Amino acid sequence: MASLAACRRAVLAPNAYTRSLTTAPPSATSPPSPPTHFKITLRRSAISLGDRFKATLEALGIHKRNQTVYQKHSSDIAGKILRVKELVEVENVPASAVRNKWEQRQERKAVRGYKVVGSRRNTLMNL
After folding, report:
1. Residue 66: phi, psi to the nearest 5?
2. Are 42 and 66 in contact (CB under 8 A)?
3. Domain architecture of the chain: domains with CATH
4. CA 124 → CA 14, 115, 117, distances in Å?
5. pTM
6. What are the tens digits of pLDDT across the range 100-121?
7. Do 88 and 42 form a contact (C-beta atoms < 8 A)?
8. Which residues make beta-bridge pairs with 42?
9. Taking residues 67-85, what's their average pLDDT?
10. pLDDT score of 16
11. Contact 71, 37 (CB under 8 A)
12. Cα 57 to Cα 30, 40, 42, 62, 83, distances in angstroms
């Protein structure tokens, strides 16, 4: 028995030949905030589905394909998502990642390729 216990200690004890994963020291920044919202994006159309599926999507606030909405975590929203899980893509996001409709639109816009420095109208008006 003593030899069996010694073998277990030898196997379980760390030695110089074992590898371990090292982690980076904790950063000075605050820890990431926990997810508080669902990011729901409609990926498939509900055209040929019944009215109950369409009503569920409407209750979630989704009206078009590739539209994204943010909903707070709650049991009723989770149930609605499960009802249409084949049609939507869902991510858990923190409150800091929640975007309203205008912010989503601004993120999609391309950067203007030019800058208006002056116009002829302004120079004529100053005469």
Report:
1. 65, 15
2. yes
3. 33-109 (3.30.1390.20)
4. 84, 20, 15
5. 0.63
6. 999 999 888 888 787 777 777 7
7. yes
8. 88
9. 95
10. 47
11. yes
12. 36, 10, 9, 5, 9
Residue type, 16: A
How far is 47 from 65, CA to CA, in rounded Å? 11
CA distance 127 to 112: 31
SS3 per-residue string spanning the chain = CHHHHHHHHHHHCCCCCCCCCCCCCCCCCCCCCCCCEEEEEECCCCCCCCHHHHHHHHHHCCCCCCCEEEEECCHHHHHHHHHCCCCEEEEEECHHHCCCHHHHHHHHCCCCCCCCCCCHHHHHHCC
> Measured between alpha carbons, how far is 18 from 41 in angstroms, rounded to an integer?
46
How sure is the predictor about 45, in pLDDT bands with cuts at 50, 70 and 90? very high
Nearest to 38 by CA among 89, 84, 83, 106: 89
